[in-house]
Every structure is written in C-alpha cells, then in structure tokens.
Amino acid sequence: MQSIQKNIKNSDLLLEVNNLNVFFDTADGKIQAVKDVNLFINKGECLGIVGESGSGKTQTFFSITGLLSSNGYCNGSAIFKDFDLISASEDKKREYLGKSIGFIFQDPMTSLTPHMKIGEQLSEIATFHDNLSKSEALKRALNVLDIVKLPKSRNLINSYPHELSGGMKQRIMIAISLMCSPELIIADEPTTALDVTTQSEILNIFNDLQKGMGISIVLISHNIGVIAETSDRVMVMKGGKVVEKGSTFDVLTSPKDEYTKHLLSCIPPWLEG
Amino acid sequence: MIKFITKRLIIAIPTLLIIIAFGFIMMRVAPGGPFTNERALPPEIERNIQEAYNLNKPIYEQFFIYIKNLSVGDFGPSFKYKDFTVKELIISGLPVSATLGLSSIFISLILGSFLGIIAAIRKNTYFDYSIMGISLIGICVPSFVMAPILSLFFGLYLGLLPTSGWNGGNIFNLILPITALSLPQIAVISRMMRSSTIEVLNSNFIRTAKSKGLKSSYIIRKHVIRASILPIIEYLAPASAGLMTGSIIVEQIFGLPGIGRYFVVGALQRDYTLVSGVMILYASLLIILILITDILRAYLDPRVKI
C-alpha cells in the first residue's frame, strides 16, 4: 500500500478532467448524464470508476474520447498531456485515439468487426498511426498477442472473430489497444461479459500492463471486487455525479458517503477480506 | 465450394421439374386452348391440328413427351407464333432483355448503394431528406408513367435520344429504357442501403473502429460497407431475375423485341409451350441467381458457411 502511494506522489499527471458535463438530446428534452465531473489520472496508475448502470461512468469517458452517440454533446476540459481532447478538432483527436489512448469495451462478442480477420483488425491501427507496412504491422501484432497471453500463431491472425471464444475476443480487444504502445487504456467493464476464471485472467493482464509496462489504466466497473483487486485509487459515481473519491484502501475500508456504504454493504460478508 | 455448387445444382433439377409440372397442369386446366377461336374450326382440321401437336393424347403422355423433348433441349414449337420454335423466340428476345436487365441492375446497385451510404452518413440533413424524398417518388411513380415521360422529354422535346427501337443494341437507344428500368430499383436499393448502413454505423464494432482513431472514409470502406450491403445482395437475386426476363411495360413502350411480352401473350393465348419455356427460363435464372447470392453472402460474411 505504501509503495503505491509513493508511486502516485512521484509520478506526474497524464489526464486531467475539469468540470465535465455531458448532455443528450432526447425526445423528452435535454438530459444531463454527467454533472460537473473532475478527475485526474497519473502516469502508471490504475483508477477505478464504480457505479451502478446509468451513473454516467461510461459516458464520462465516451465524451472524452469523442465516442458519444450523435445526440450527445459535452463541455468542460480534458487535458491529456497539455492537449485538450474536448475542444480539439476531430482530426487532431484522431491522432491520440488508438495511438496514445486505447479503449476496451464491455461486450467483446460484438466489438470486433465480424467480416475482418483478426490480423487485419490488429494491424490496421499500426499501419494507420505508425505508418508501418502490412507485414511489419502483422509482426507487431504477433508480439502483442504474446503480451495478452494468446498463442503467437498465424492461425489466430487468419481467423475471424466468430471463431474465437469470448475471453479470446476480449484479449484481442486488449491487444488492439496495445498495438501502438498507449500511455492510457480505458477499460469499460472489460470483464462483465466473461465468466469468473476468464475474468481473473484478464485482470491479471491489466495488472501486468500497469505494473510491468507502466501504462495508466481507467477501469470502469460496477463490480467492487474487480476494482479492489486492481485499482490504486477509486471514484464512486451516482446519477452522473462523483460522490466519493480517494485511495482504494481508504474508500473501501472507511467509506464516507452513504451511497458508497450502501454499495459496499451489497457485497456478501463471506467475500470480504 | 465446388461440392456446394454441385449439390445445389442437383437439388435444382427436381425443383425445376416440379415447376414445369405445375405450369404444365395449370395451363391445361385453364379453360380454352391454343386453337380455340370464336369461330369453331371444322372438326377434321381441329383433329389434324390436335394430332400434330399431340394434344389428343392423355395429359400425362403429353407431359412425358414434353419432358423427353426438353431433355435434349427442345422446347417445342410455339403454338401461336407459327414457324417459330420457343427456343428461337427466347434466343432472339433474351439478349435484348438481358442487356437491359443486367445494365440496369448494375447501375441501380452502384448508384443505389452509393446514395444510400451518403444518406446514412449525412443522416437527417437536407441531403438525406432530398435523396429519400426523390427515392420515394421513384418508388411511387410506376414505370408506365415514367417511361413515356422520359421518352417524351428526352426523345421528342429535346431530341437528344431516340424515342424507341432496338437498333441492334445501339447505346443511345438503350439509355432511356435502362433509365426507366433503373429508377425504381435505385430508389428501393438506396432506401434499403440507407437503413442497413445506419444500423451498422450504430453497432459496437464501428465504435471500436472509431476508438482506434481511424479515418471515417477508411471505416466506411473497410468496416461498414461489407456488413451493410448484405440485405441488398439478398434483394438482388429476385430483382435481377425479374429485370433480365424483361419488363413488359418498358419493352412495349420503347418498342424493344425482348421476351417480356411472351409472358403475357403466351398466357393469354394459351400458348402452352411458350409459357412453359419462359417459365423454365425464369425459374432457372432465379435458381442460378440465388446460388450466386448465397456464394456472395458467404464471401461477404465469414459467419455464413457454405
């Protein structure tokens, strides 16, 4: 615990979000999904975001990366290494997306393009951002498969997503986000659709990425167990607002907010400790 | 692949036989016959004619004779277009109808999907509204209205293009009929393409592609089109079979010697062999086109196994 906290103090700021608001135009009028969120992520740190569905945790990060659906818009600032992602133009933002910021989605089953080979889905991001040739990109893809503990095989590169299991697909998603050596990975409920054994394997990969490669990770989850296992700091969201934040240890052992207490009380007692 | 195609073609044989039998019986059950006139023929002549065309034999025997002739590629003589066999009629008309049909399906596919994709990308803009509005008109205005208007405007008033005739397949003679055939198809295809593209654009894998920071044009080309064109491919088989066997209306208005009219004339005049021949042609085309569709679909969507 002490070593982690020292780590946080020494490392510098990677992403700082200030006064972020997200709105959606719906048939019933304007809805605010995220209300005045402030957060920061340091280099090499894992930030956990907890909250129930609809608490705005996903939309916070969709708005930062420009993935909001077409009826959504946001204001505020999200400074990623001196660069404001929110006010930036699409073209400028694209240079960071996939290159410095990797995104991993909740549902691996539908998140890969069904009619493209795994190899192409991995390599296209490197040919696009790093101007690699196709064969160089494929070579890099094979190395990245090793990191996510998939076999370095040509067979896998030449298969289609429907031929893989859910856990394998999620590893491919992680591999895609790693292709251009990102500094930040945003993982939106990466283990929700997976069974428990696969879940822990995936979390181990995240641990390796953070501790071994120094990549900052934002882990969005409704599962406090997952957050407790991986995050250095945690932020609790409800109804679009941040209700509590602090180091994982502090928040989980002595929660101050009623909602956090309520969330924690939902864990069956035999799982604690 | 070859195994799949052979299997499908073998299955096609009984399918065709059933279609032939069905058409054969339906035509003969219909009242009247090819030689029934207002003025009854003298019984002797009638008997002679019946004998010449095997019409005096029991119906199953006629059927077997027909099938036997078919197996050596003989579609029989036309009952009404004397001096012509059905094969000759089809061979002379099919190139005309097929040229028109294939070109118009090709043009509609390219233009229709292109317009549909643009409309989907610019969803709810004036561009989208105008394309969808025009295509609604294209669907609603029938070709027997559109064809004369085109002919009148471009042929007569502007004098740019010939109003009718085949003229040995001269390109200028083809422009107007192909346009008349294509417009409704473009309209249908662009609407289908728009809705399927919108659906694909909202799917999770496109979100992944966006999160990779790829260019929109690249995402459309590599990730979207192959998924969104699938419903169009499905629609293409019946549409092109219909267009290739000719549209009676467009062929009549532009005075083209296609095979569209044989459908109607053959049925009305109880020209048994002609109706059967045209039916076999249409059914075979449809079977082959559906086979091609299935192969295309398996190529476009790796989840489909053939």
Throw out a few tags for this protein.
heterodimer, A: 273 residues, alpha/beta, Rossmann fold, six-stranded mixed beta sheet, 10 strands, B: 306 residues, mainly alpha, MetI-like fold, 13 helices, 75% helix
Structural notes for this entry:
- The complex is a heterodimer of chains A (273) and B (306).
- Chain A is α/β, with parallel strands linked by helices.
- In chain A, 39% of the residues lie in helices and 26% in strands.
- Chain A has a domain at 1-100 and 185-191 and 218-268: Rossmann fold.
- Chain A is built from eleven helices and ten strands.
- Chain A has a six-stranded mixed beta sheet, with helices on both faces.
- In chain A, 45% of the residues are buried.
- Chain B contains 13 helices and no strands.
- The radius of gyration of chain B is 24 Å and the shape is globular.
- Chain B has a domain at 86-258: Orthogonal Bundle (MetI-like fold).
- Chain B has helices at residues 2-29, 43-52, 59-71, 86-121, 126-140, 143-157, 171-201, 204-211, 216-228, 230-244, 248-253, 260-268, 272-300.
- Chain B starts with a helix and ends in a 6-residue tail after the last helix.
- Classes of the chains: A alpha/beta (273), B mainly alpha (306).
- The A-B interface holds A 65-67, 69-70, 93-99, 102-103, 105, 107, 110-116, 124-125, 128-129, 160, 162, 173, 176 and B 123, 202-205, 207-215, 218, 222-223, 226-227, 300-303.
Briefly note the CATH topology name of the domain at 1-100 and 185-191 and 218-268 in chain A.
Answer: Rossmann fold
How would the global form of chain B be characterised? globular
Gyration radius over CA of chain B: 24 Å
Helix content of chain B: over 70%
**Second rung of CATH, namely the architecture of the domain at 1-100 and 185-191 and 218-268 in chain A:** 3-Layer(aba) Sandwich
- Strand order in the largest sheet of chain A: 6-7-8-3-9-10
Unreliable residue runs of chain B: none
Shape of chain A, please? globular
| DSSP helical segment count of chain B | 13
Please give the alpha-carbon distance between the first and last residues of chain A: 15 Å
Approximate helicity band of chain A: 25-40%
Proportion in β-strands of chain A: 25-35%
Mean pLDDT of chain A: 88
CATH superfamily of the domain at 1-100 and 185-191 and 218-268 in chain A: P-loop containing nucleotide triphosphate hydrolases
Largest sheet of chain B: none
CATH classification class of the domain at 1-100 and 185-191 and 218-268 in chain A: Alpha Beta
